[in-house]
Amino acid sequence: MKKLFTLFYLVAMVMPIFAQTEEDETIGTYADRSYSLRMGPTVGATFTKITQPDEGKLFDGKGAGFAGGLALKMRFGRMSPESNGGTGILGFGLEVKYAQHSAKTFGVDEEGTKNAKFKMSYVEVPVFVDLYPFYKLPSLNTFYVQVGMQYAGTLGVKPETLTLNNPNPDIAYVKYRLDDNGAKLKGQDVRALVGIGYNVPNTGLDINARYYSGFSDLAGNFKSRMRYFEVSLAYLFNL
């Protein structure tokens, strides 16, 4: 975790060296490029839902969390022969960020708290393609549709146990050990993502909304999967 934050800090320190204004793109070699490359910080809010385990109803609706990190985006082509590079139909990008997700439960934790909140923290790396369907229209040139995949590695989980007191009729009692030896809840997930976004012209601001759906169970003995909606705001510098 310390290495991750050290990387964020170092990149943030060198970003101003490479940052260029929108006007700079028309000066010197920047006018000859057929692409644009941008990088900067991103922050967002997450609204997470976890599917119910096989044993019964454990989760009670969505929970709010947050995410933050660095984004890198590239866009290719030109809107017209006279346009700046990086105004075409296709782009791609990736992010590296820390995210915390939570969900309400009907369970009881190891301290006896009823309706305990379930929390998981991740390092997340989404990789995506941006399609600009209205790139021929100057007023909508920066609106995009996004599809991609995300890798997520678990950093931590709370609480240590969750007890389900009202499981299915054929089960008397269920206790999930979430963060203990052999629990294997700390693992990896691969998630599909779809979204839409808009780059606010001449500001560097990128507004984005995405939906993620995980492919992996939380653990071998915990057949639940994570799905969530994320709204984020990035400030991207020209490189």
Mean pLDDT, to the nearest integer, reads 83
Poorly predicted spans? 1-30
Strand arrangement, largest sheet?
1-2-3-5-6-9-10-11
Sketch the topology as an H/E string, one letter per element. HEEEEEEEEEEEE
Number of helices: 1
Q: In percent, how much strand structure appears in the residues?
A: over 45%
Q: Rough shape?
A: elongated
Give a count of the beta strands, DSSP E runs of length 2 or more: 12
Kindly provide the radius of gyration, computed on alpha-carbon positions and rounded to a whole number of angstroms: 21 Å
| Helix percent band | under 10%
Structural class: mainly beta
Q: Quote the distance from N terminus to C terminus.
A: 27 Å
Describe this structure in words.
28% of the residues are buried. The radius of gyration is 21 Å and the shape is elongated. The protein is 7% helix and 52% strand. The chain starts with a helix and ends with a strand. It has 239 residues and is mainly beta.
